Amino acid sequence: MRKPIILFVLCFFTFGSLIAQDNNEPPTSLTRDVSGNLMYEKVLEYPGVSQKDLYKRVKLWIDANLKTVDNNISFDDLNNENISTSDVLLLNQFGAQSYRPCTNFKINFSFKEGKFKVKATQFSYIVGVINAPLETLKGVGSAKWKRRIYIDFDEKFTALMSSLQQAAGNKDNW
Predict the structure, then answer these.
(1) Taking 60 as the threshold, does the pLDDT of residue 17 lie above it?
(2) Is the N or the C terminus of the chain less surrounded, counting Cβ atoms within 10 Å?
(3) Residue 60, domain CATH
């Protein structure tokens, strides 16, 4: 009789920890738009830098940092006003996963004299055959593996946006 009880308790704690819910909101660099979808939007100002120079710097940054199969630039205008593209961020593999998780998103850049706006939308994550909006990883009831993916994404996305901000202001790196 003791063996089944001990086995039950052992299984309960082992499997219970695997499916445990994490009620903490993970840290985020993203916000929600009016419809509740995750997005990133920021205006970066560089006084004295022309629209054309900012456009060139960001375009070079895209070529160096955003890796997609379609060679990055989806829309590129001749007036140096907008660039639209997408990106895939490979995330860290953890546990016994056989697939490496990744996220993808659309990103748009709008340029004016001395500043540009970056706006990223349509975030989704892919793990094996699962392809779902990134916001399903966030919030109350998210399983721990989902939270790990979200935090890993957040760290990588924040680093990517920091490198953009630094590179756009540094004319010597181009």
Answers:
(1) no
(2) N
(3) 3.30.530.80
